């Protein structure tokens, strides 16, 4: 594990909650329809006449989402999105949700985020795919503006998701390509994994490759190695959403602790394939038993390209700061470890190389260095 070079009695090893919040953070895997403020859902439901909410008190509704998502199965976890998608069917609603998303992330110290959603799930009241994308983009720009007024800096890019059980992936990939210079930075597929292999959408991935565009694939969450293998070797994914099951291709000798990587795990590590890990979400869907047993601990030690993410802030009642704090508590990570995750995320982001480099060198590194030096001036 990364450690500090010198030991001084006054130098704290463990970052404080306040330092974690102030540390610049980068988020690559967060669903727009999984991050609404409970109060906003209640408002939007009232405005739009949606009467199926399980609770109308915002606090109780927040608790309901966390409990309902705590199901141990990805399929049941995904059922909760019916309520958020139901209230995200107008331009105004999409704009508001996107603006608040950017504001909330900025407030939490996130400086760069790629937020995903499935445009095909927002057409129930007659919006076109283009109108959905434009409303969300405008919302993100508004959120960035509001954040700036409050003294925060954040940039948000959109990832367009196609649902793996549906048959619109090529159409959504074309949409992502059309908006690539206006707010959309890539493509993804999501939804139930078992029974819906990524190769069903090969035409979409091949199209994006021919267009020199970027995509990530949810793989190795509810289903194991074959899903990861297909996502990489058939579909050509740039990153893996979750990818936790790569652990199934790693053997640790119980006697002497020697580690052996299989061919696929070696490939993922050698090629520096980014893993978008979402610890709290994995506990809820049963992809991991406990945080202490979560594969992120070993994968980080083995120096896979690990990134830390929220997945669904509403369903997991979480934030980037909370995910970092949980990891600090469980694995004893230092500011240097948190910086490593953050730099990994920027290296893996879908924005141009020069922008990523400037974010790393001019935003992330100086601020972590500053945080690390705070103990000197107390
Ligand atoms: O962890 C996940 N695994 C797979 N699919 C997911 C996960 N979280 C959310 N979604 C799905 O992605 C859609 C678009 O944002 C959501 O509506 C939800 O169905
Ligand atoms: Zn996800």
TrEMBL record:
Binds 1 zinc ion per subunit. It catalyses: adenosine + H2O + H(+) = inosine + NH4(+); 2'-deoxyadenosine + H2O + H(+) = 2'-deoxyinosine + NH4(+). Keywords: Hydrolase, Metal-binding, Nucleotide metabolism, Zinc. One of its GO terms (molecular function) is zinc ion binding. Residues 24-365 form the Adenosine deaminase domain. Substrate binds at residues 31, 33, 191. The active site is at residue 221. One of its GO terms (biological process) is purine ribonucleoside monophosphate biosynthetic process. Zn(2+) binds at residues 29, 31, 218, 311. GO terms for cellular component: cytosol. Belongs to the metallo-dependent hydrolases superfamily. Adenosine and AMP deaminases family. Adenosine deaminase subfamily. This is Adenosine deaminase. It comes from Streptomyces xanthii.
